[in-house]
Amino acid sequence: MILSRPRCALFVALIGVAGAASAASAAATTKVSLMTASEQASLIETRHSTGKGAAVSSFTTEYFGNGEIGMAWEDKRVLLLCKKAAYLNLPGMKPEASTLSIEQRQMVAYEAMMAGFGGIAALGAVTGESVEVADDGSEMRRPGESSWAYGVERYEVATQRMPDGALRVRVRKQATVNNAKPSSPDDTFSTDEDQAARLAELAPNDSWTEVVIHGGPRKPRTDPAMSLKGWVSTVEQHAATVGDARRLHDCK
Fold first, then answer.
1. How does residue 26 score in pLDDT terms, banded at 50, 70 and 90?
2. For the purposes of burial, counting CB atoms within 10 Å of the CB of 242, is it exposed (0-12), middle (13-18) or buried (19 or more)?
């Protein structure tokens, strides 16, 4: 398990001030590092939709002062106690989590961690490492771009410093620019099949991702009295409560 937050490789975005946002851009702004904000976060909320009228999925990641991490989506939860153990509560999962091998349980916990990082990476691919926010709390909107194999994807980027100090960043896809030329019989890489496959991998227009990064003090730790009934461990041993699990797995 990895407790430190990995630095994602981010594409450099081409961001300019939209004419319609000129009034907002006149306000004083501050540049904020997405990586620094996420590393110092106490809670990160991620929402995503594939387009207008589509369902919105939500994922939250909570960070505790002692290094524990709690992840939640729908009615499912993953609690990383330390490098030695994580606990899974996945009602409705088929097959049931209790029937999974230790390796499969560990993979579920790992994928949950990566899902939390994925929202930040999705933003960074469009905005670059840093974003600008208006000091007066108003929403700023600017265009952004992300490169793909045969062109660019165009986005609208919205940023805002919320009243409670949280950083909100939302990217909404507006268009795909495809500069690919028809392939010739001698082409090895840029074949029509490759172009079609790469295009199919892209997010649809009007899809969006929004991340709200909360700073402030982290809770010291998960409540030691919290019951782990209905949870399964990513190791052989299983504890009844969080406090028992810390002792069982020798978590600090």
1. low
2. buried
106, with CB counted inside 10 A (0-12, 13-18, 19+), is: middle
> By C-alpha distance, which of 9, 54, 31, 7 is closest to 159?
31
Closest CA to 161 of 30, 24, 9: 30
Measured distance CA(2)–CA(238) in Å, rounded: 21
178 DSSP β-pair partners: 151
Cα gap 35→110, rounded to integer Å: 20
- Of 53-62, 180-189, 220-229, which gets the smallest average pLDDT? 180-189
Give residue 144's pLDDT band: very low, low, confident or very high (50, 70, 90): very high
Of 114, 208, 112, nearest to 168 (Cα)? 208
Strand blocks (E) in the chain: 29-33, 43-49, 56-63, 69-73, 76-82, 85-89, 130-134, 140-148, 151-161, 167-178, 208-214, 232-233
The CA distance from 102 to 109, in Å, is: 11
| Burial class of residue 22 (count of CB atoms within 10 Å of its CB; 0-12, 13-18, 19+) | exposed
Sheet holding 85-89, edge to edge: 140-148, 151-161, 167-178, 208-214, 43-49, 56-63, 69-73, 76-82, 85-89, 232-233
pTM: 0.84
